[in-house]
Amino acid sequence: MRTIGITGGVGSGKTELLSYIGEHYPCEIVRADDLAKELQEPGGPCYAPLIELMGKDIVGGDGRIRKAVMADKIFKDRDLLAKVNGLIHPAVTAEIVRRMELAKKKGEISLFFVEAALLIENGFDKICDEMWYIYARESVRRERLGCSRGYSEEKITAIMGKQLPESVFRESCPVVIDNSGSLPESIRQIDQVLEAYQWQK
């Protein structure tokens, strides 16, 4: 089983490309953002520590953590962000490693993908066999974010300003998929890489 990390800037189209991979290749896909939410559910490893850190008022009537209340607290106390990340990121990494090991033991799939915006920052290059950078021109990313998410230009600029520069993505990821154009063109690049491993769809 080959483990592949997928990263890229906001609006680069990682989700759409991973949907294609999931439909056409024998693989498991773990999205770090989705996993982080899962780990914050009641009974999850981050649930009790977050309540202890931020207070019981972050819990709603249904017993779940209220993300809006969490966000408000973090906005008012920026030091909280580092503490929250210090709880969530290690838990996410540990769970990804656990799932990787489980998949290897089962031996049912050829590929294990991990998708995360902070893949490089969180050291996943040490966990994954290979790193892929999903690239798209900034103008394309801005258009996508404006159309699909309704983000303002100011919000897009602020988000992009917090992400790694393109040079770092390229230095850290041997495989680059250019997703600036059409979906069929991006799929052709993906197939070319994966079929070179001589794995069947």
Task: Provide a descriptive summary of the structure in words.
By secondary structure, the chain is of the alpha/beta class. It contains nine helices and five strands, in the order βαβααααββαααβα. It has one domain: P-loop containing nucleotide triphosphate hydrolases (Rossmann fold), CATH 3.40.50. The protein has a five-stranded parallel β-sheet with strand order 2-3-1-4-5, with helices on both faces. The chain is globular, with a radius of gyration of 18 Å.
In short:
The protein is an alpha/beta fold and 201 residues long. Helices cover 52% and strands 13% of the residues. The chain is globular.
**Termini separation (Å)?**
15 Å
Number of helices: 9
Q: Count of DSSP E strands?
A: 5
Order of neighbouring strands in the sheet with most strands: 2-3-1-4-5
Strand/helix succession: EHEHHHHEEHHHEH
Principal-axes shape call: globular
Main beta sheet: 5 strands, parallel
Low-confidence stretches: none
CATH evolutionary superfamily: P-loop containing nucleotide triphosphate hydrolases
CATH topology: Rossmann fold
CATH architecture: 3-Layer(aba) Sandwich
Helix content: 40-55%
Q: Helices and strands: which structural class?
A: alpha/beta
Beta-strand percentage range: 5-15%
Please tag this protein with its features.
201 residues, alpha/beta, Rossmann fold, five-stranded parallel beta sheet, 9 helices, 5 strands
